[in-house]
Specification:
80 residues, disordered C terminus, mainly alpha
Length: 80
């Protein structure tokens, strides 16, 4: 199993897809407790990576919305 360090390099889609795989493997039952713990830890790290991407995307959308609203306000005022 790859190390947790590689998770920082994953795109949102890659992290999400691997998280789905890890959850599926956990649901089927790992052969040992140690393997289950490794899967759980990796799943937690993958979920955190997905959350980082989502927080960043939310911030970018908010910045775009704020930027668009600020630039559109004078135009609407000029039309009225």
């Amino acid at each position: 199993m790859p190390t947790h360090d590689d998770i920082a390099e994953l795109s949102y889609e890659q992290a999400r897809d691997e998280l789905v795989r890890v959850v599926g493997e956990l649901e089927q039952g790992a052969p040992t407790l140690e393997h289950s713990l490794q899967l759980w830890e990796r799943g937690e790290a993958l979920a955190a990576r997905c959350e980082e991407w989502l927080v960043g995307a939310r911030a970018r959308l908010e910045a775009a919305r704020t930027g668009s609203g600020a630039s559109a306000a004078p135009d609407r005022g000029a039309e009225a």
